[in-house]
Automatic annotation (TrEMBL):
Keyword Ribosomal protein among UniProt keywords: no
Keyword field: Membrane, Transmembrane, Transmembrane helix
Record-linked InterPro entries: SMIM1
A GO molecular function held by the record: protein homodimerization activity
Protein name, UniProt field: Small integral membrane protein 1 (Vel blood group)
Annotated PANTHER family: SMALL INTEGRAL MEMBRANE PROTEIN 1
GO cellular component, one term: plasma membrane
Keyword Transmembrane helix on entry: yes
Transmembrane feature ranges: 49-74
Amino acid sequence: MQTQESGVQYSRWDDRSRDEVHVVAGSGTEEAWSWQRVSRKLCSGKLGIAMKVLGGVALFWVVFILGYLTGYYVHKCK
């Protein structure tokens, strides 16, 4: 059984209940592949480690500044 709408091919072979499912490439595969390449490049290797470290440092400073401002306005003397 093959359906062109869903992009999935399903075939059952042998009587040993082994199923084989294939996902067929659709029209947006080029865009998906480019995003996968960018994601793979930015999230792995030395560049990926550097991006994660920079993201962690940036997140730290955002939380620190928000906490400082919140604490300042909560504990401000009237």
